[in-house]
Amino acid sequence: MASKPYRLAQGGSLIDRSRKVTFSFDGKDVSGYAGDTLASAVLASGQKLFGRSFKYHRPRGLVGLGSEEMNALIGVGQGNKHEPNLRATQIEIFEGLNAESQNRWPSLKYDIGAINSKFSRFLPGGFYYKTFMWPRSFWKHVYEPFIRKAAGLGKAPEGRDTDTYEHMHIHADLIVIGAGIAGLAAAEAAALSGAKVLLCDENPVLGGIADLTAGKIDGECVEDYAKAAATRLNAMPNVHVLSRTTVVGHFHQNYLMAFERVGDHDPAILASGAPKHRLWKIRAHHVIVATGALERPIAFANNDRPNIMLASAVRGMIGRYGVTPGNTGIVFTNNDDAYLTAFALKKAGINVRVVDSRSRSDGDLVKRAIADGIDVSLGSVISAVEGTLEVKAVKIAAYRKGQGRVITERRFECDFIAMSGGWNPALHLWCHNGGKIHFDDTLQSFRPLSHSDAITAIGAANGTMGVADTLAEAHGAGEAAAKSVLKKAKAVKATKFKIEEPIRGALESMWFAPATGLYNEGNKHFIDFQNDVTAADLELAQREGYESIEHTKRYTTFGMATDQGKTSNINGLGVLSEATGKTIPEIGTTTFRPPYTPYSFGSIAGAHTGALFLPIRQTPIFNWHKSHGATFEPVGQWRRAYTYSQVGEDKHASITREILCVRNKVGMLDASTLGKIEIKGPDAAEFLDRIYTNTFSTLKVGRCRYGLMMNELGFLTDDGVTVRLADDHFLMHTTSGGADRIAAWLEEWLQTEWTNYKVYVTPVTEQWAQFAIAGPKARDVLTKLDPDFDISNEALPHMSFKQGNIAGYPIRLYRISFSGELSYEVATPANFGQGLWNAIMEAGEEFGLTAYGTEALHVLRAEKGYIVIGDETDGTTTPIDVGMDGMVSKKKPDFIGKRSLEQSFLKGPNRKQLVGLLTEEPNDVLPDGAYAVRVLKDKPPMEMIGQVTSTYMSPTLGRSIAMALIENGRDRMGEVLSFPLEGGKVMKATITGTVFYDKEGARING
Amino acid sequence: MADLHFESALAHRIAPDTTSISIREISERGMIDLRGNTADKKFMSAAKSALGVELPKAPRTSTTFGDVQVLWLSTDQWLILTGRARVTALLGDLRKSLGTIFSLAVDVSDMRSIIRLEGDGVRETLMKGSTLDLISEDYAPGTVRRMRFAEIAALLHVVEQNMIDIYVFRSYADYAWEFLMKAARKGSEVKLFPNS
Amino acid sequence: MITVNCPVCGAEGDETDFHYGGQAHVRRPATTDAANVTDEEQRDYLFIRHNPKGLHFERWRCDRGCGKWFHAARDTVSLDFKAYYGITELPPDEIIAQAKGPWADYFKERMKAKK
Questions:
Q1: Inter-chain CB proximity B148 and C16 less than 8 Å
Q2: Are B117 and B176 in contact (CB under 8 A)?
Q3: Given CB atoms, is A611 within the 8 Å cutoff of chain B?
Q4: Which residues neighbour A697 within 8 Å (Cβ) at sequence distance 6 or greater?
Q5: Which of chain B's residues have a Cβ under 8 Å away from the Cβ of A760?
Q6: Angle CA(A360)–CA(A361)–CA(A364) in degrees, nearest 5?
Q7: Do residue A166 and residue B106 have CB atoms under 8 angstroms apart?
Q8: Second-level CATH architecture of B29-107
Q9: Chain C residues lying within 8 Å of B59, measured CB to CB
Q10: Which residues of C touch A751 (CB under 8 A)?
């Protein structure tokens, strides 16, 4: 053996032997060539061990060639750049790549968890359900930590991911998924017909497995045809090609999602500013599924040993990378296709022997193998595999279909096995959105049947395995798709190819190979490698009564690993079929769900991380707030200043200062977030009468009125002050959170119910910056700003409105109050907002003006007993509940919610009513949401009769105050209620009215 | 009025040179929201006499007359654009011309922020945050379309083949800006159907 | 993710550009006098909705387009839209003919009332 015994002297269509690449695997330097995958380079270095299995920690090697790989899951990158669970067969190596195996400790070779394997008889199918159920308290402290440590895949990255990700949208007439010869031919036919075509393939190089396919197209090998077609497509104006892009899901109306690995294979691409991954959101008029087929493993004893690979994977390793898994191999098959692997091995100078479970086959490939002098054992199976960390020898037993026991066997030394149990059409995308499938006896697998979407499956994905048939089908499908989508599709003449390909013998299903020794004694026939589910587990589930395949799946976890049962599904059904005597179609199949392969969380988040995680709305004064010590409070998507803490002040201190400043001097609040809606038209007043519970048609021009809104259920939904600007023109204020909702609500009623009303509604919330100036000195501040109109109490009394200029700024001035103080709200166009704010601040300085935030606002309004929709109401609260019966018109013929309010249960006794609460101990602040109980007991359960809706320490009153919704509250004035709290503490509070301060309301008219 | 402090939503943002297309705020534009009934001939002619140009009736279109542009927003709603300095006068003319005709015209100059995108790849940049097929013929210059953009509401106005104005509500301007900075980052360009 | 076409402005877009507004043709009882509307009628108006497998009639709004409400007939199995029509209109006759169960009863009554 040479120093690199597994890298062949020649061959390797994807590698560049002139460019050596060194990378790290499990801390060891490994070198390969540019174009290698991690799998091929590590295998070339002589290492066969790639990971430990999920449950039993069995040593595992490579099985597949691409995305179907289920064993060799690798973590790439370190720290915050770590990405776990990548398939070694898809990781393209580059200089400096840092990769590590997973699920092993302390090392791959000596894994302590492998002891699970010794106890495997205690870890049967359904063991999670059987073992860890009792005692209950053990779950948290014993079972869960054990499972987490012993089982599991890769570890999560440490720290914040600094790479970028993005989403991209694309529309096409046709998407072709898979760029094997079927996909290429279909895409070309459709593109030549004039359709806009998107072609996606998960591999770096287009062509699928053309290079592993037998036959000649016009005298050239299939691979050359694929290369030429790919080149033509890449140059077409109406074709977009995405490689390294896996279509992970197909959804309603041909909406698809595809995951592009933009920068994984080359750090230089990432460094140039490209995103690491891009998630494509695709809308196509037609979908062609050309996803090929996946080779099946065979269930034979210990078929999971390292260096037991799929036959196509071995063929690919030799052809693409010039790498052989070993020096002496056994090809184990039940079909003709795997003979191609035997030829490839022989050509590379590797010893090879074919074990074929069929008693006879008259296919061309079998004949050729025998003629070439390859040792072919027909009617034989592998009955035992020797070796744990690598294959050392096999036993080959004579076999006839259905035979359950080994009678005679011979031993052969070998160091790898290439297996093929046939091919399964890759149906996943066909099935994601409800495509129907049916069982095909020739393939011994499912294939597409029908679909309600505009979607076609072609080639191996459709169960069409021959080259000639595939090309004809693909061309027809491409052309038909273009015709169905385009008004005028160009006719494209099908190219007449001269195709030579071998005639194949029939596949013979073989779901379970008999093994040396007693049943299940040291023999594990793996079905689902990734979740460690064996044929015995499936049979056990069957015996225990799990008849439905969907139940068996969940009980054994068969097909539920990250590979979604790509290679295991049919084998599992086959085992169950033999165990039950039912046919596979009778057993049925499990549901294929997106994603086809796992894709990164980063790509799902896309650009929406950090500052873009959620849309944030800023008022025109946002930057001032930020630079003046504000902490922010989310109100919907808005960020409102909560309080402005000055140096040495905690939040409590600053809130107290802000409140007292409003009560004693004057404060200013940024109220720009309040919803503002202009409503105009001859029927505007009547319309508002229907929208609000109270009457607006009687409001005089230039005056303001507070209004309540209900929904049709009779429950409060919004409130605010509306101003009459002219006879037919109103300006409505809504809550900050309600602005968009109420504007849409008004439109809805106008468009769908009262369509005869002549009313236009235009939301103008963001046109205005709006500030509340509140406190005894409010008028003094405004006066100093030189208004060009009279703002005296007589000219501008409470609940009136004027427009003009102050400090030169055009303004609307509303004399309204949410604090109970003399108060104005001043509005100016938003881009003047900061200027006017600065001018007011400056003018207010001599009066002690301070900015106050939303917490002070809330305390001020609670001291006055003003409600907040969403605090005092919870979506089931009526105006009567909050004591606003007086605001519900008795005269108006109709308004929203009127009829519902008459329902007996909304008028009846025992409704919760809004009351004030004063705690017995003035410094006790009731927790928000605390429950009042009918009878206080030592411990729960206790009957709840209401809850606290707002609760604050009032600096104005020097004691705590609260509001609450209490059963029949208004009839209980003076009653002392108990509020049991966490930790056995109980607060007691007396029911009072809701107005705590300035009960006569004198200050507001100051 | 000269000493009034004017501050647009993106005044504090400076376009960096890290983007592959040019991105800047247009703050000098005034806007009027107009609502009225296209079936009302009096309304249509009153609007035309004030604006100098017919209100566009065809969905998603716009018209221009001198320094006045009218963008279609809905079957009964338009956004009228003109220079900020002219907007008060134009609104006055419009209201006078409309008189008692059932309609609503409001100055909304400060309600939206306008971000102008210019250069090769503007359409693809926007398609990172929009489900619309902006590279299709449906989006010829002059096209106006309201849309969902990066999780917020936006109005798109295709000015030229490679020049697009995005209108977002003022409070979202910072968010939209951040998104565009990321989407247009050099090195992340996507060219759809690259040979077309 | 289904696509929706607005019959008012012709905009086509993903369903996220539109707002689903619940069942169509729910009639609000005249509430001029509460006594005119029984509790049962009010209950039906507020809460009772059809839940058919197959053809259904819905309200939608062109939320990110012209802002207008419209009606749609949609198949709840295939999710396909069968027809769009105005917010104050009844479905096209050929669609009404396909209505089943409570919807068929409803349209029969409406058509009778129309005559």
A1: yes
A2: no
A3: yes
A4: A685, A686, A688, A689
A5: 35-36, 76, 102-104
A6: 155
A7: no
A8: 2-Layer Sandwich (3.30)
A9: 9-11, 66
A10: 68-69, 87
Give chains near A: 3+ CB pairs under 8 A: B, C
Chain A residues inside the 8 Å CB shell of B8: 831
**Smallest Cα distance from B190 to chain A, Å:** 9
DSSP for B7-65 reads: --TTTT----TTBSSEEEEE-SEEEEEEEE-TT-HHHHHHHHHHHSSPPP-STT-EEEE
Give how far C65 is from chain B: nearest CA, Å: 5
Pairing of strands B144-149, C3-5: unpaired
| Beta-carbon separation of C61 and A748 below 8 A | yes
Among residues A89, A99, A107, which one has the least CA distance to residue A14? A89
Q: What residues of B are in contact with residue C17 (Cβ under 8 Å)?
A: 131, 147-148
Q: What is the pLDDT of residues A659-713, one digit of tens each?
A: 999 999 999 999 999 999 999 999 999 999 999 999 999 999 999 999 999 999 9
Question: What are the structural domains, with CATH classification, of chain A?
Answer: 11-162 (3.10.20.440), 165-293+425-493 (3.50.50.60), 297-421+509-516 (3.50.50.60), 525-591 (1.10.10.1100), 674-843 (3.30.1360.120), 909-1005 (2.40.30.110)
Contact A273 B136 (CB under 8 A): no
Q: What is the ipTM of this complex?
A: 0.97
How many other C-beta atoms lie within 10 A of the C-beta of residue A87? 25
Spatial distance between the Cα atoms of A640 and A656, rounded to a whole number of angstroms: 18
pTM value is 0.94
In sequence order, what are the residues at sequence separation of 6 or more whose Cβ sits closer than 8 angstroms to the Cβ of residue A231? none
Give how far B3 is from chain C: nearest CA, Å: 39
The residue of chain A nearest to residue C32, with distances taken between CA atoms, is A893
Residue A980 is predicted with a pLDDT of 97
- Listed residue (A242, A272, A277, A13) closest to A161, CA to CA: A277
Show Cβ contacts of residue A540 under 8 Å, excluding neighbours closer than 6 positions.
A124, A125, A126
B2 pLDDT above the threshold of 90? no
- Give, for A455, the enclosing helix (H) or strand (E): strand A455-457
Cross-chain residue pair C64–B73, CB shorter than 8 Å: no
Query: Is beta strand A416-420 parallel, antiparallel or unpaired with respect to A328-333?
Result: parallel
Q: Which tokens sit at A680?
A: 């105009």
**Cβ atoms of C1 and C15 closer than 8 Å:** yes
- Write out the DSSP string of A587-629: H--PPP-S-SS---HHHHHTT-SGGGSS--B--TTHHHHHHTT
How much of chain A, in percent, has pLDDT values that exceed 90?
83
- Enumerate the residues of chain C whose CB falls inside 8 A of the CB of residue B58: none
Whether chain B has a CB inside 8 Å of the CB on C9: the answer is: yes
Which residue of C lies nearest to A900 if distances are taken between CA atoms? C42
The number of angstroms, rounded, from the C-alpha of A339 to the middle of its chain's C-alpha atoms is 43
pLDDT tens profile B59-113: 999 999 999 999 999 999 999 999 999 999 999 999 999 999 999 999 999 999 9
C12 near B CB under 8 A: no
Structural domains of chain C sorted by starting position, each given as residue range(s) with its CATH number in brackets: 3-114 (3.30.2270.10)
